[in-house]
Amino acid sequence: MPLKPTRILDLVANLLIAAVAAWAATRMAYANFPAISVFAGASLFPVAVIEAVLAFMIRAKVNNDEIGDGRNRLHPITAARAVALAKASVHVGSIAAGVWLGFLCWVFPQRGTLRAAAADSPGAIVGLLAGLALAAAALWLEYCCRAPDDPPDDAATT
């Protein structure tokens, strides 16, 4: 069975399910949560940057037809591993974004009445953006790992 590109609908479902679960958990247990720093929210940004850089490197190798076994070439197994990384990361990013979104949906309206909610909001916003950045970088990496189209076999038909 061929590997299919990640469907956006699956990522939206991940995000929404995680958001609802996080909203419910936050609503029930916010008083027991530790303070959320901006650094906690930003933890996925380095992974997103690494995946974006990897995507550009792989894209250059694919465009220059530098795929295969040999020095300075992209081994097909390396490309397959990058696809596996992208497939996992896109789901992690969408779920993380959903968790931060659900947290924000409860915390953001409480900013005027709870000082802790006001202090937690920036970290949650950064976390939401980091999750979305990871999902976007992983989708880009997945796209860059696609095999180039086979040339038409015109010579065989003449």
UniProtKB/TrEMBL annotation:
The keyword Membrane applies. Keywords: Membrane, Transmembrane, Transmembrane helix. The chain crosses the membrane at residues 12-30, 36-58, 79-103, 123-141. Pfam families: DUF3180. It comes from the Bacteria. This is FtsH-binding integral membrane protein. It comes from Nocardia goodfellowii. The lineage of its organism: Bacteria, Bacillati, Actinomycetota, Actinomycetes, Mycobacteriales.
